[in-house]
Design a protein that fits this description.
The strands form three sheets. The protein has a six-stranded antiparallel beta sheet with strand order 1-2-3-4-6-5, with helices on one face. Strands 7-9-10 form a three-stranded antiparallel beta sheet. A two-stranded antiparallel sheet has the order 8-11. The chain folds into two domains: 81 residues, Phosphorylase Kinase, domain 1; 174 residues, Transferase(Phosphotransferase), domain 1. The protein starts with a strand and ends with a helix. The radius of gyration is 19 Å and the shape is globular. It has nine helices and eleven strands. A hairpin with a 4-residue loop joins strand 9 and strand 10. Helix content is 36%, strand content 22%. The longest helix is centred in the middle third of the chain and has 17 residues. With 263 residues, it is α+β, with helices and mostly antiparallel strands.
Length: 263
């Protein structure tokens, strides 16, 4: 694909692969963009194609500085594509793994993420794949949330949403069981990210959904202060509440979580 053109943009670099899609850097008139591509084969399910374009439809309904703009989407021969705004920065997961000691302002990062997720929820959209790898930290310390490939609109019963949506380390217990996530599921995933920022690691580790699910349902989470004594007791309680297995005991909205952080 390198060197080819999609919607007038020249593909210059492969950035990532996510399931059946590939993500590239594209350029035109000195503007960088992100191009998501779904390779279409004769046996490709039409529902998968519809689900691919559904991401663009959802993002178009959002207008926030920390969410990519959609510049276009469509199909050229056997390629379905979405052209998105490019953010210059590093994904939070890699920063946590390699430069955790540089993330001294993680409370500001947390509040920035919460503000954006709260906005998404107020627009009636559930992300379903909140994770540090889907967050880009810019040089200005803004956190951009990307990849709405699993998102859905609450007011629509949409058969295109797949079961067990999410990324194992960040999936809420209800998502692991195959239920569609809601705001509280996103809050659980957000709790995992906050735990990562505070400790440099995720609550549960494993190389499969099954292994993580077994830990999640049968092991107590080690409190963040076990790994980082600089975490206040108040923030530790906030993180553990966000990660509560019981939906009723978890934060019911991002606003509640932010209120406790500000206190």
């Amino acid at each position: 694909m390198i060197g080819t053109y999609i919607s007038g943009y020249k593909i210059s670099k492969h950035l990532a692969s996510t399931g059946l899609t590939d993500v590239y850097l594209g350029t035109k008139d000195k503007r960088n963009v992100v191009i998501k591509i779904l390779q279409v084969k004769p046996d490709t399910d039409k529902r998968r194609i519809n689900r691919f374009f559904y991401e663009a439809e959802i993002i178009q309904k959002l207008n926030h500085k920390n969410i990519s703009k959609v510049y276009g989407f469509g199909r050229e021969d056997d390629i379905c594509y979405i052209v998105l705004e490019y953010f210059d920065g590093h994904n939070l997961r890699e920063l946590i793994k390699t430069h955790h000691n540089l993330l001294k302002d993680y409370i500001d990062i947390i509040l920035g993420v919460c503000e954006t997720v709260g906005y998404i929820h107020k627009r009636g959209i559930i992300h379903q794949d909140i994770k540090s790898r889907n967050m880009i930290l810019t040089k200005d310390m803004d956190v951009k949330i990307i990849d709405f490939g699993l998102a859905y609109e609450k007011n629509k019963s949409n058969a295109r949403i797949r079961e067990r949506a999410g990324t194992p380390h960040y999936m809420s217990p209800e998502q692991v069981k195959g239920y569609r996530g809601d705001e509280r599921s996103d809050i659980y995933s957000l709790g995992v990210v906050i735990y990562e920022l505070a400790t440099g690691r995720r609550p549960f580790e494993g190389n499969s959904l099954h292994k993580i699910a077994v830990q999640q349902l049968n092991m107590l989470i080690k409190p963040p202060r076990f790994y980082n004594q600089k975490v206040s007791k108040g923030l530790e309680n906030i993180i553990l509440r966000a990660l509560n297995l019981d939906l009723a005991k978890r934060y019911q909205s991002v606003g509640e979580l932010v209120l406790d952080i500000n206190r």
